[in-house]
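pinging the channel bc i need a second pair of eyes. not urgent but kinda urgent?? the chain im working w is below, pasted from the shared doc
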Amino acid sequence: LRGFAQRTQETYLNCVSKLAKHYGRSPDTLDTAAIQAYLLHLITERKLAYASVNQAVCAIRFLFTIVLGQRDAAFEIPMAKVPKRLPQILTREEVSHLLAHSRDIRARTLLTTEQVKIVVA
């Protein structure tokens, strides 16, 4: 009814069923503290990626706000912050080595052009 993709529906159902299995009872009987403890369990003990935890948050939030209609419940579950990764930068020596070992002039030109693009951007 909400227009979610089939895969999203399956994933949400899977997330909610794992929550129910974790506590051994229906998720609608859980409070916010129990849900936050479960999400902490996913991060610290199960070592899930932040994207997976965020997916669980969305599934649980959907269950409580849309399915169960508890829109006014104090249900503040923050989304996990995905750490930003710095781009990997080659050293001058690595760039020189790459250019020196390019197979032909076309490859060297492409590599040189891309290098300039990256530096300018």
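so DSSP finds five helices and no strands in the chain. and The chain has a mean pLDDT of 82. — does that match what u expected or am i reading it wrong
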